[in-house]
Task: structure prediction
Amino acid sequence: MTTARRRGILAVITALVLLALGTGLGAAVSDALGIRTEPAEQMSPAAPTAPDIADPVAPPSLGAVRAPDSPRVEAAVDELRSAIDAASERRGSVTITVAVMEEESEPDDGEIPEPDGYRLTGDASALRIDADADAGAARALYELAVRVRAAAPLTDLIGEHAPSRLPFRMVDMGAVGVEPDPAAWEPGTDYSHASKAFAQVLLPEPPYIDEAALAEAFADFDEFVRHSLANGYNAVAFPGFIEFVAFDEVADGVVYTPGDAHRAQALALRDAFGPFWQHADELGMDVFLRTDMLTLTTPLEDYLVDTLGSLDTENPALWDVYAAGLDELYAAEPALDGILIRIGEAGEVYDVEGWDYYSQLAVRTPTAVRAMLDTLSAQAEASDREVIFRTWSVGVGAVGDMHTNPVSYEEVLGGIDSPALIVSTKYTLGDFYSWLPLNDTLEQGQQRRIVEFQSRREFENFGAFPNDLGREYQYALQTLLAANDRIEGVWVWTQDGGPWRAGPMTLYLKAGFWQLYELDTVVAAALARDPDTDVADVTAAWARQWFSDDPETVATIVDAMDQSREAIEQGLYIEQFADQRVFAIGLEPPPMMWIFEWDILTGDSAVLDVLYAIARDATGGDIDQAIAGGEEAVATVERMREAVAGTDAATWRDPALRDAFTGTLDYEADVLRLLAAYRAMILHQGEWHDTLSPDAYAAWDADRAAFEALAAAHLETYEGDIDYPAYNLTAAQLGVERAERDLLMSWLARILLALAIAWVVIGMLAARTSLVRRPGAAAARASWIASTRPWRARESTLGMLELDRWLLLIVPAALLVATRAVQTSFLSWTHLAVVFAAWAVFALVVRILVGRRSPWPVIAAVGGVIMLRCIVTLIALSLTGPGGYWFAFWTEPAFRTAYIAVAFALFVWVFVAAGWALAAQVRARRATGFVLAAIGAGLALPAVVVGAIGLERALTLWNDEMGLLPWGLARILGITTYLEIPPETPWIAAAVGGALVVVGLLLAMPWKRREDEASVPS
Result:
């Protein structure tokens, strides 16, 4: 067998191996993306019912009240008196006698507070409350106050009232201690999750507490606690834990050395907020400290690392330190009832600047969770307290799907049955979005369970839109209670969740139209007490309390709220996408991916292309069905607005609240019109990429014009408005800018493709025709031969004219530049800079190592393969431009695998061909060294630059220009955090590149004095 034949066979085998490896890589990429869907079982709440709205009844004046001398009962009497005093008129008078039958008893270990049943007897002039405990007496008085505010007769409550079905009813901290500063909300770009509660109270230096601000915060807290008690809640989650612990009981106080400011701060904060907790306890409100784990200070972290060797959360000894801190805290503050722990979110987005208290996502394995809960539950049992553990762990290590996966839940929590442990879980199978199934992990487990609800829905514009969740809450509780008798409570978020200052400045009880989402807080408590409560009656009572006594006006408001869910579900979501469970990158993306948390209208290809493909498949290709949902939502809101605006203004209790109601409906209608236009645009854009239909392109162009007009009007109307803030349209506008270039880019790609193919064809035919004598033909011939038979690269370049030699370099380089520029729509100079810097360094190192020898053989080989590689890319770009390229990548697995296989094979063949071409000059070993050194340098230099800039910053800049992943990802979660890319990755790449350089240079050195005598200079 001749040498040429052996080389040809080896080249074919190499190409097949590279294609096989590329196919495997393509399959691995598809597996890593893991894009798939499965049907989702939707919740099915009952249909709305019209309440029986009677004429308003004026309350009686409150006469003598004979009640036990108890702060809890006195607070309830105050609420009743306040409700009566607020009424526009009063008729008659009523006396009230309260009798508590037995002394309150301490609850058994692991039991939730005493029952709150009561009996009401008497008549309109004299009522008597009989209860077994203060809790029942207070409940009766609060429910009488609710009747007063609902303009209903007090005597309707006469009779027996069983204890609440769910005895534990907790709220967050509302907006207590949060300053309503318009300047902080106006930019709308602060996506921090830190509430900055008590920021005015805390001082960085001794005495650490501003006493005047503390007094204001106490009044704030008192108002919130009294209001929450009146709404039916009996526990509060107070932020903080590590801030109040001095760690004096840990190893003789070596966590904080003498004089450490952390200890002084902890004692000062404990002294400041201890009276808050004691006050809440006296009024009948349990207090749980709410914290992320791990929660740290710098000295505490140093102590744990020095003592244990690392922050090993699987080591029970680490948790002994926190247990000791709890022992200390409970001994000092007996009003505290326990601790509430979250492990699924932490980091800078929750930290407060200037304070050395921070958190880490460090509890990431079932072993770590169990070590934590075993230790802290034992501590709680010994101290007669409780530990509430949240299953919110989405995406965090091996426990990342514990919140939604029954198997993972059992793996993490199975067998942990401490009576002091309560497990808290969101009622939705994921975060607080619509269209999600009921969370079936709440139907399992031997632990005590509570269900989480959110009133001010963060993903549905922070409660700025009417959003009556009552029927959904009722369905959830009724279904879950039928399945699991271990559920004993709820936790309702009245304010918290998401970034505090990136939406409307609605602060519970103090700023904005907070009364709108107060409905969900009230109805959740009512359902916790009695899951069979008529939610329409609760809604009517809410409307009467805040807006009007007039039956017609109340009926109109109730009807509008009944329609509110349809507007939200159809306007903020694309049903055909949202009603399925979607999986990608090992996670379960939420059903509202086109609006990225929380107000960012996304413009990235990954989300929008996949969204279109799922909607297409769900509708059999009739995407007009998906588009129609947006139009229906707009029509629904317009009906709501017309009805509310049509009520008699004179019947409203407060003209400002009527203006707020109509204003929020105007705002919602504007937003939904904008979203409807954007929905039509992105779906028609996907249809064009999918079908190449000119009609789809024309529809997209018309939708684009409509969207741009609505976007301009939306920004002009609402930008800077702290009550109705404009959506963040930056990502959407970047997406439009890229889409507008797709058609032009496709034509440029076709032109470049034709020129590139012509160059290759000329090279293939030049040796057999008179073309070889034409300028450039010899260069094309050399390029073709060297790229396909690199062992002939040297002979193919012999005797070439100077022009042909330079064309060997210029033509491939120019095509590479043009192809990458078209691929990025001339918008990503970052991408171009990185690509060209890497190739330039590669070429420079090869040229230096070649030295006196001719560089043209390797230039011909590398340039020829680059031509072929560019042709592959240009074929993909020539259909509908870069948008179509990425559409196929995200949505067509077969195309993705085939493209990656060929592209990868050609990419690696560049270096194989380079080495083969050089081997004719310096033999195989040294040629391999040349190529490895060049590859290492080409990798190391860009990696060092990226590392110096910062990986997150570099990826953010690149993604902003390319538009592949959600623009908001970097602003809120961080690309590296979300994709779990180690921040040290560029330095690792640089080290690998450096190692390749060293190995390459060692191989490139002549090991014998005469080894390289066969080399021929140019």
About this structure: The two ends are 32 Å apart (CA to CA). Confidence is low (pLDDT under 50) at residues 104-110, 1011-1018. The first helix runs from residue 3 to 33.
